[in-house]
Amino acid sequence: MRKVFILSILSVVIVFGFAKRNYLNGRVKSGLTKPVNCKNCDIEFNEKNSIHILATKNSSLHSPIKKEIGIRKYLKNKSLVPLKDGEGYTIDKMPYSYPFLTAKTISFIEALGMEFKTACELSHLRCRPFIITSALRTKETVNKLQKINPNAIKESTHLYGCTFDIAWSRFGYGNDPDQEMLDLLIPCLKNMQKKRKCRIKFEMNQSCFHITALQ
Length: 215
Ligand SMILES: [Zn+2]
Description:
There is one protein chain. With 215 residues, this protein is an alpha+beta fold. The chain folds into 2 domains: 32 residues; 181 residues, Muramoyl-pentapeptide Carboxypeptidase, domain 2. Helices cover 40% and strands 15% of the residues. It has 7 helices and 7 strands; from the N terminus they run ααααβββαβαβαββ. The strands form 2 sheets. It has a 5-stranded mixed beta sheet, sandwiched between helices. The longest helix has 23 residues. It is globular. It binds zinc ion.
């Protein structure tokens, strides 16, 4: 009897915990989170690596940096600028890249973040920031990445400071999937692409949008 009582108390605590977490995420959901559907993303965002490479030609970072220590020089001469959380977006932990990009790329991200935030407000939804999962890579981090992911490209546009990745499978304030937020983010990305401000490739396996801002 005592065992049954303890088990009942435990289930109440667990259920309450789930409900509270989901409420804090902006809405009450039933049960576990569902996977999201990135509708037509593979068709809408299919610009190849060669097109992204062309888009990096005017980057203020002319050639790839070999190792982490080399980043300092480019921060000093302002070819690279630190990437920090902003309106509508947040920065993830980046084990295989560094949170630095060219100033023009950061301006692009700021504009995208504002557009996304406005879309949330117009839809009367609490905005959960999109997550930037990767930014600048050095030759050293590309080599490390290739060891765990043989599909990682050696000629990575992440080497030029104008490419970054946005997660489509999770959003900030909970780090879990959110179909509503994704449905708001997709038109913002399409709009930027239409204005020729960026190149975008949908990455299914990496669960991200690979984006190169035009310089
Ligand atoms: Zn990428």
